[in-house]
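Troubleshooting entry. The earlier prediction with heme C gave an output that would not parse, so I re-checked the input for stray whitespace and re-submitted. Clean input:
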Amino acid sequence: MQASISRVKRHLSRWLAGSLLGLLAAGTVFAGNWLPIAKDGVHDPRSPAAKQLQEPQEALSRLTPDTTGNQVRWVQSLEKGEINPREKLFPQTEVKKLDQDILLNLKGGMPIVRFPHKQHTEWLDCSNCHDHLFERETGKTKISMFNILQGEQCGVCHGAVAFPLTECYRCHSVTRPGQTKNLPTHMNPQFHMPGRKGP
Ligand code: HEC
Ligand code: HEC
Ligand code: HEC
């Protein structure tokens, strides 16, 4: 029993390491700045419309910078009022928001995951997640890092349209009492540097 558990763990960590290398490679696509529209491989550079669109560099460089993903810290940009996206297309649409944090991963070795409803419902409707991705009852959905790395659950958006999965500690953001392992340097008391802020 003991042996088979450690074998599973070994497999899992090797598999995690492999997936992570892939993620890191994908993360370098945006390094530094934004590709011009004519070179992004999405728009047809010969189309007259390509010249009418605003260049990402011009628009996005004005917003709160991030070190990852598409280089904008979107949650902060919205909170600071740097952007003011329209909430709905139709006047009759009811905009629903919820200010409730959900703590997940209460038993694992990584820090606890804090899922904030507030920041999500600033961008999304309840129906983007409920109930096809997550039950409306804390702890009822079987969520796992394996599924997330396969692009399911949190991974439907994170790594696709929201910050990438390489930012472990933006989700695993709450340390357990007395936790000293599996911490990023700025959370690790052994490496504590005065003035360093959390994730
Ligand atoms: C988008 C949010 C998110 C990101 C980013 C993320 N995780 Fe997770 N992780 C979760 C959730 C949610 C769970 C499952 C919680 C549960 O068991 O209910 C989880 C579970 C885990 C587990 C299994 C439980 C444990 O703590 O041992 C490991 C290991 C893990 N994550 C490692 C990582 C590593 C390493 C990274 C960065 C490469 C990472 N995670 C990035 C959300 C995230
Ligand atoms: C980005 C995804 C997402 C969005 C959007 C979202 N939720 Fe959730 N919600 C979750 C997750 C994840 C859980 C935890 C599920 C679990 O542990 O099984 C949860 C849990 C809940 C719970 C259970 C709380 C408890 O005390 O047990 C309720 C109620 C809930 N959501 C209501 C809403 C409502 C109302 C909205 C819209 C205003 C909403 N959610 C939007 C992801 C989301
Ligand atoms: C339907 C899409 C969607 C799903 C599913 C989703 N997220 Fe997010 N999440 C977003 C978007 C959009 C943002 C804001 C943009 C960004 O920060 O990249 C965000 C932001 C966040 C933030 C940052 C909040 C802040 O204050 O900066 C955390 C933490 C987070 N998500 C955790 C999770 C976890 C954990 C799960 C799974 C339980 C999850 N998300 C599932 C779309 C999603």
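This one parsed fine. Residues 24-31 have pLDDT under 50 and may be disordered.
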